[in-house]
Amino acid sequence: VLIPVFALGRAQELCILLETFWERMNLKAPIYFSTGLTEKANHYYKLFITWTNQKIRKTFVQRNMFEFKHIKAFDRSYADNPGPMVVFATPGMLHAGQSLQIFKKWAGNEKNMVIMPGYCVQGTIGHKILNGQRKLEMEGRSTLDVKLQVEYMSFSAHADAKGIMQLIRMAEPRNMLLVHGEAIKMEFLKGKIEQEFSKCC
Asked: Where is the Beta-Casp domain (predicted)?
């Protein structure tokens, strides 16, 4: 299973979830994270655990949550190892780097899976496979057949439309400016905001 992640925040959140689940279920399949920025980030999370939220700090009494027992640094050669494994690799949208290299290697086997844990920008490979594309044009005019399973699990750090509407209700701003997102979706959200809040203002 390949899980393309952003190196900061998302990677650590998912590492904690899997570490806890592996322990509870006594699973033995190895879990790896790609080295580089994720490894550095993990080191700093471990170092500054007292800066994290209360729930994480509470577990620090027993052990440091970022002292992963089941999760090890990934080496390129491991991608060819037989048997099951889970790999967290960056970047999160499969547009370059280690996650894309592993994806290319594993894409042709239906026993493999990629779990996309967040939003993917239009045009990225992550976006294409989430929309069901099974033949991808790669650089150098080669075609990649995607046979692996594709799953989406939302771990987005951004609020969705519902969350934004809630925030507007609570904050009651005089003006709203939408600056981040896809034009069509922002247009839709603008309509919802005008529809709901033009009556009260």
From this structure: 11-129
